[in-house]
Amino acid sequence: MGILNVTPDSFSDGGKFYGVNEAVRQGLRMIADGADIIDIGGESTRPGARPLSLNDELKRVIPVIKIIARKAPKTLISIDTYKAPVAEAAIKAGARIINDISGLGFDKDMAAVAAKYKTPVIIMHIKGTPGNMQDNPVYRNLMRELIRYFRQRIRLAIATGIKKSQIIIDPGIGFGKRLDDNYAILKRLNELRRLDQPLMVGPSRKSFIGKVLDLPADERLEGTAAAVAISILNGADIVRVHDVKEMKRVARICDYLKQI
Question: What is the pTM of this model?
Answer without folding.
Answer: 0.94
